[in-house]
Design brief:
single chain, 321 residues, alpha/beta, Rossmann fold, 2 domains, globular, binds iron/sulfur cluster, binds magnesium ion, ATP-binding, Dipeptide ABC transporter ATP-binding protein, ATP binding, ATP hydrolysis activity, ABC_transporter-like_ATP-bd
Length: 321
Amino acid sequence: PSPLLEVKDLKVHFPIKSGFFGRNTNVVKAIDGVNFHIFENETFGLVGESGCGKSTTGKAILRLINSTDGEILFQGKEISKLPHKEMRPIYRDIQLIFQDPYASLNPRKTAGDLIEEPMIVNTDFSPEQRKRRVHELLEVVGLSAYHASRYPHEFSGGQRQRIGIAKALSLNPKLIIADEAVSALDVSIQSQVLNLLRQLQRDFGLTYLFISHDLSVVKHISDRIGVMYLGKMVEQGSKKSLYENPLHPYTQALFSAAPCINHDKKRERIVLKGDLPNPINPPKGCPFHPRCFVKMAECETVTPELRYAGDGHYVACHLYK
Ligand code: SF4
Ligand code: MG
């Protein structure tokens, strides 16, 4: 099958002023050559520390940020350079669920208004049809028609995220980009919302790009996972192959800190030295080399490419050639 979404060598670079009176201009490489694809009905998890470029990747796909280079193919069609007018049908097909349900919902609008909004602009439904659809959507996300006249502050965090999901579903999208969609919720509510998302995926044939810094969340929901570090994809593979056999030293460290799937297989905790380097002045060679515990001489000068390592598994590290 051909992928629903393909991201090829995507780059987002932007200039920033620094130094005395902002006299110097530096280029931040927020994303510096990211590659991945997502098949229909699949959940692709994008994981990494805050500032690694995963949100920027999601925003670039939705054209909320302009990419500097590379390609974004949606259903085989290049969309990264389309005029915004021609993006309209694509904006229906790709929807975003935000991090903080509180911040993303207008407090002066009822849940019904919020869910209805995208339909006013993008469909020719009559007011009655829209109202019926709002009630339908509320039920689909586990709320009820009664909630249509309530305001965001009257809902719990989990309920607000359900409203956000209903709104995202209102135009029958194909792809949903969820950026830290459950990160603001309590753990017990998180799993309810994740289960809802999986149910909706089955019922409506949805495809997810699931972005999170939280490995346990990504593990719960993803079929395949990509690991990002300093604007680059450093490893990618099926959930199983990544968890059972993480290849990149960064992935090994990241996964060693997260609870194991099968507890019989004990994993030694790898603690990384140092902080995430400054993206304005990233390290030469492998971006991970200042923190890598198996670094070799060439790692300081040669940047490793993302290469196929068998079994649907890709890695960017000189240890694997
Ligand atoms: Fe470590 Fe070198 Fe691999 Fe980078 S390329 S992760 S520095 S071994
Ligand atoms: Mg983010």
